[in-house]
Input
Amino acid sequence: MPYADKSKQKESLAKYEKSPKNQRYRYFQKYSHATEENYKHYVATKNCEICEIEFGGSWFKCQDHNHETKEVRGVLCNGCNTAEGMIRTSTNAMRLVEYMKSHGV
Output
């Protein structure tokens, strides 16, 4: 049930985010080579490292990592993480930038 008082909801979420026993921390440990330092960076990051949008609402945090090596790269919003995964390489990203510039975007 949602909190009537939004400050109480934020306080509860903050406690959850900092708890080393929460679900995200267990996910970090199980599915990646994330360290406690990576996790602390994830929790502390309030904006996407690419588009700088503030997390919240429909914009949620994603731990960006290399799926082959499991190396953690950073914290992205779900939009940038999806785009980065679909573009796949920095060469393709540069091609996209050039394409967008050539079409005035």
